[in-house]
Amino acid sequence: MQCTRKVTQDILWVGADDRRLAMFEGVYSVPRGVSYNSYLLLDEKTVLFDTVDRAVEKTFLENVAYGLGGRALDYVIVHHMEPDHSATLMSLLEKYPEAVVICNDKTKKMIEQFFGKAPNAQIVKEGETLSFGKHSLTFYMAPMVHWPEVMLSFDHESGVLFSADAFGTFGALNGALFSDEVDFFGEYLSEARRYYTNIVGKYGPQVQAALKKVAPLPVKMIAPLHGFVFRDGETIRRFIGKYDAWSTYTPEKTEVVIAYASIYGNTENAANILACRLRERGIAVDMFDVSVTAASEIVSAAFRASHLVFASPTYNNGVFVTMEALLHELASHNLQNRTVALIENGSWAPSAAKWMREILSPCKALHILEPAFTVRSALGAQDAQSFDAFIDALVATIPEKA
Ligand SMILES: Cc1cc2nc3c(=O)[nH]c(=O)nc-3n(C[C@H](O)[C@H](O)[C@H](O)COP(=O)(O)O)c2cc1C
Ligand SMILES: [Fe+2]
Ligand SMILES: [Fe+2]
User: Fold this and answer.
1) Could you tell me which of 127, 252, 266, 335 has the fewest CB atoms within 10 Å of its CB?
2) pLDDT, average across residues 155-165
3) 85-106 pLDDT, tens per residue?
4) Which fold does the domain 255-395 belong to in CATH?
5) Residue 160 scores a pLDDT above 90
6) What Å distances lie between residue 199 and 187, 233, 256, 317, CA to CA?
């Protein structure tokens, strides 16, 4: 039996939840699951907006068949060719061979690459509008948000912006479809941030370009390919504000994120002392052991916070492995515009700070405080003054605490 929800009078959600996936795209844990959204427009023509991951194929095809109610499927719009939205395209087309695939020329090429055959495609270009009856859709290319073929579409009749992966959130829908059916900003913003920063975060300028294209549109609803549909104007305004901050690498919060690695606990002790001193001065702190917490969580926190502290033992004349991986992740996600302080530890030739600086060197507008603080094996009474001075120098960069 079908599991669908109405988005509007004539647009039906025909997607599905997956709660069994351990790692989304092989790297991002999804303990609360993930949804693959697909939408069906029932107008004079019938139009399906994207397909779903292979894992939920059966439910999806059942939902589409129910939604069509015996009608033919006239069109499938492919906004994004990543397999979490396109793996079931060929099974769909086998069932509905008459359906025409609406896509751009980059998408058509990718369909051929993935499936080894050319679809019956109708190519759309930037700004082109197609009518399906009451509903007419205009297409906007959104290259590198976060693949080159990505496009968005806007339905002039309903005011729905079909936003592809943009505005997506990790987490199964659990029966809810609209963000106003849950406490979105209280319970799901962190999952929306983790989704954005890890998957799209590298492409801030491209997201800015896409936001500018859709800004003049009278958007009443945003329908992404993962997570909730947004229909409440205030939520849409606030969420676009978050996208604006994330895509311009603007910190959301004055806060120090401390990410540390530690083999024997001495670097961890320095990190804990730092956290106490900052809290005593009323400064917000979030803290992670980089060997325990997945990098995707820390990348997300780093996009939120204004200040970052990285603390690591020296390891074979390098930086500790898990810290090295985290810093590469941050650099490859284009993190910028943050104040950074470094703590290194070493028992004979401390050099971790040098390596941390080097990994972060491609990041733009990172203000790395100098000098880094060096722990020699363990902090002792002899370090009290110099550690205080290091903390004071960090606090001096936090405007309201300076
Ligand atoms: C495999 C391994 C390699 C290390 N390599 C170095 C090194 O190249 N230079 C150095 O000064 N210390 C090195 N150390 C020592 C640690 O950096 C040092 O003991 C530090 O105090 C550990 O901090 P922790 O207590 O936070 O784990 C190494 C330790 C281990 C286990
Ligand atoms: Fe994607
Ligand atoms: Fe996706």
Assistant:
1) 127
2) 98
3) 999 999 999 999 999 999 999 9
4) Rossmann fold (3.40.50)
5) yes
6) 20, 25, 23, 32
Q: Is 335 a residue whose pLDDT tops 90?
A: yes
Q: For residue 352, give the ligand nearest its CA.
A: 1
Where in the chain are the domains? 5-247, 255-395
Q: Is the beta carbon of 322 within 6 A of some atom in ligand 1?
A: no
What's the CA gap between 255 and 278, in Å, rounded? 10
In this structure, which residue's CA is closest to atom 12 in ligand 1? 346
Q: Give residue 306 CA to ligand 1 midpoint distance, Å.
A: 29
Cα separation of 1 and 4, whole Å? 10
355 lines ligand 1 (CB under 6 A): no
Contact predicate 112/89, CB 8 Å: no
Which atom of ligand 1 is nearest to 313's Cα?
Answer: 17
State the distance from the centre of ligand 2 to the C-alpha of 200, rounded, in angstroms: 8
Name the pLDDT band for 122 (thresholds 50, 70, 90).
Answer: very high
Task: State whether the beta carbon of 315 lies less than 6 angstroms from ligand 1.
Answer: yes
Atom 16 (ligand 1) nearest CA: 346
CATH number for the domain formed by residue range(s) 5-247: 3.60.15.10
Handedness of CA 58, 62, 67, 68 (dihedral sign): positive
Candidates 273, 317, 322, 347: which one to mutate for ligand 1, based on the most atoms within 8 Å of Cβ? 347
Element housing 211 (H / E)? helix 204-214
d(CA 114, CA 123): 18
Q: In angstroms, rounded to a whole number, what is the distance separating the alpha carbons of residues 305 and 333? A: 15
129-139 mean pLDDT: 98
Does 350 contact ligand 1 (Cβ within 6 A)?
yes
Give the integer Cα–Cα distance in Å for 290 and 223.
Answer: 34
- Taking alpha carbons only, the member of 193, 180, 228 closest to residue 34 is 228
Position 21 pLDDT exceeds 60: yes
Burial per residue of 112-141, b for 16 or more beta-carbon CB atoms within 10 angstroms, e otherwise: eeeeeeebebeebeeeeebebeebebbbbb
Strands 34-36 and 39-42: unpaired
